[in-house]
Amino acid sequence: MRVVGREKIAAFMNTHADSRKALQAWLAEADEARWRSPQEVKERYPSADFIRDGLVVFNIKGNSYRLVAQIGFRRGIVSVQRIGTHAEYSSWRL
Asked: What does the DSSP 8-state code read for residue 33?
């Protein structure tokens, strides 16, 4: 997949150093992935939640952080929308 929004991940890792390893692993996997459906994402990330129209929430670092991305399966694009702590996620309107 082509990942768009890497700058959001980089900025988050700079302020939350303990997320670095987990986010780098997620990014490497997303780069290599060839997801064609929500089911394929769920096979790799069973705790991922699909909200609507390709918008998915990934739990990062044992659910300490949440990464929200829009996945365009036909185009092969993962667009990072938001990333934050579990507490921050609770206040987001998605």
From this structure: -
Domain residue extents for the chain:
2-91
Q: Residue 17 corresponds to which tokens in the numbers above? A: 């150093």
- The chain-wide mean pLDDT, for the chain, equals 94
pTM of the model: 0.91
Report d(CA 38, CA 26) in Å as an integer.
16
- Whole-number Å distance between alpha carbons of 41 and 75: 15
SS3 of residue 64 by DSSP:
coil
Three-state secondary-structure class, residue 90: helix
| φ, ψ dihedrals at 55, nearest 5° | -85, 125
CATH architecture of 2-91: 2-Layer Sandwich (3.30)
The two tokens of residue 55 are: 């918008």
